[in-house]
């Protein structure tokens, strides 16, 4: 590429980021004007939890990089974090285990992400709120009314459609999950699905799916932001919310509604055990010498090659570890229908069996090839007998000639 | 009096395409089965080993070659200057010949049906099936390959094919379909090679050698 072109390209990129920065600044001003005052002072909270200013700045750098923004956006990330609690959030629970909430709320050493989630302005969260019964219902109605078109609806859990949705009824009025979801999402600024249940249906929707559970987007016919995972990483959620605060819009999504910045790349391609895969070094069974050496888990059923997620980069629990680092293969929990498509979870994919027995594709293939070979042998012998006279006729004809 | 003449049946392009496809399919099956169930190389340092990496390299290289051979073969079927044979793939639509051909293969009749097309009625179905298999294995292969790239031809291909990936249930299902189709290829090869030799033995037209020389023998009455 010519030098001139290169500087043109650089100028174009610079201009793009400048425009983006301007947009971001304008939007942040708008946020500070329109949204309610912060209930908590983030910096005071951080100090109280023993997180220094320096650590906070480091965190903003990490989030800026994770969101694929250049370093000039660091102050904006900090500002967005300070305004984090301004964003009204209604958090709904449907058919699920609350594991995602648990994963976000509990950590050994709360980092900035966790504290940020504590400052969140939860207008309604079934597990965390003190209100119950009709009071809770009132809270929800008030929140939807007061912040119509402004609040973010966060949803955990799939929606069962069987029995007209009556497999899941909520609250004192006995509304079905689908009714509640429709009421709330119709007034939300955006719908963020936390966890694979609300994003793709997860285990409730796995075969045979007796309650006919489906994802939020499928049940309501709306488009959602899917923070997939079972549970997902808190960074992926806070990052998406920060992006929304900074730019007033949702980040780029892939074809399944997952933010590209978090789910754009495969586990397998960023795995710390990948060199062992390329070197043909595999763990053959749990606890063998190869497992002690930290070799590749492909042969004990790691589904990293089929899974898009950033687990290996951001890790869990304050960056301590993640499944593959801990010695178990990835089970592909960020992918739709993973209980069915990724099974068996601790064996390679071709070991999927049919009819609950030992009939794998390879065994069926070998058997069919054997049958074909036997058939060929029989056909060859039969042909030899049937067409034996052909030669004689030809030779006789030749004699006549 | 009968005379045996030699008639050109296969163009040079078709023959090169056939053997290049045969070679790449063979290499793809061997490397593919290794990728599906690899053995561990325990000896030596990790840094000095790259066996899986090399096997995957060969698999991807010949996979892309197979894709272009497929495109070339479809092109030849429509635009070959020697003989565009796309009509010959429809030989199976002649039901009478179809049944006659089955009888011939089951050794019920001693003479096969007469047809002017390049392929017999069953053959034409088998080759449509083969082209379909190549198509499916190339598409699933492109998706699997593209998932690991974030730039270039493979990335573009995988991005275009992303709806197919989602429709079929993600990379895991794509990978599984890819694996199942490998077995279809193995079965096809076993039957294909046998049938070629069987034709050679029964009809004595030099079917096997025709794919090398390009010529088939015909008895002509003078």
Strand order of the largest sheet of chain A: 2-1-3-7-9
Mean pLDDT of chain A: 86
DSSP strand (E) fraction of chain B?
Answer: 5-15%
Under the CATH scheme, the architecture of chain B is Up-down Bundle
CATH architecture of the largest domain in chain A: 3-Layer(aba) Sandwich
Order of helices and strands of chain A: HHHHEHHEHEEEEHEHEHEHHHHHHHEEHH
- Ranges of chain A where pLDDT stays below 50 over 5 or more residues in a row are 395-401
Straight-line N-to-C gap of chain A? 78 Å
Shape type of chain B: elongated
Characterise this structure.
- The complex is a heterodimer of chains A (401) and B (222).
- Chain A has 401 residues and is an alpha/beta fold.
- Chain A is 47% helix and 9% strand.
- Chain A has a five-stranded parallel sheet. A two-stranded antiparallel ribbon of chain A has the order 4-8. Chain A has a two-stranded antiparallel sheet with strand order 5-6.
- Chain A starts with a helix and ends with a helix.
- The mean pLDDT of chain B is 90.
- Chain B has helices at 12-36, 51-79, 95-105, 121-146, 152-160, 162-168, 170-203, 207-213; strands at 2-8, 215-221.
- In chain B, α1 (12-36) packs antiparallel against α2, α1 (12-36) crosses α7 and α4 (121-146) packs across α5.
- Chain B contains eight helices and two strands, in the order βααααααααβ.
- Chain B has a two-stranded antiparallel sheet.
- Chain B is mainly α and 222 residues long.
- Chains A and B meet through α13, α17 and α18 of A and α2, α6 and α7 of B.
In terms of topology, how is this protein built?
The complex is a heterodimer of chains A (401) and B (222).
Chain A: H1 3-34, H2 42-48, H3 53-66, H4 74-82, E1 88-93, H5 99-105, H6 112-119, E2 121-125, H7 133-146, E3 152-156, E4 159-160, E5 169-170, E6 175-176, H8 177-185, E7 190-194, H9 195-200, E8 213-214, H10 216-220, E9 225-227, H11 234-247, H12 260-263, H13 274-278, H14 289-292, H15 311-314, H16 323-326, H17 338-341, E10 353-354, E11 359-360, H18 361-386, H19 388-400
Parallel strand pairs in A: 1-2, 1-3, 3-7, 7-9
Antiparallel strand pairs in A: 4-8, 5-6, 10-11
Chain B: E1 2-8, H1 12-36, H2 51-79, H3 95-105, H4 121-146, H5 152-160, H6 162-168, H7 170-203, H8 207-213, E2 215-221
Antiparallel strand pairs in B: 1-2
Helix pairs in contact in B: 1-2, 1-7, 2-4, 4-5, 4-7, 6-7
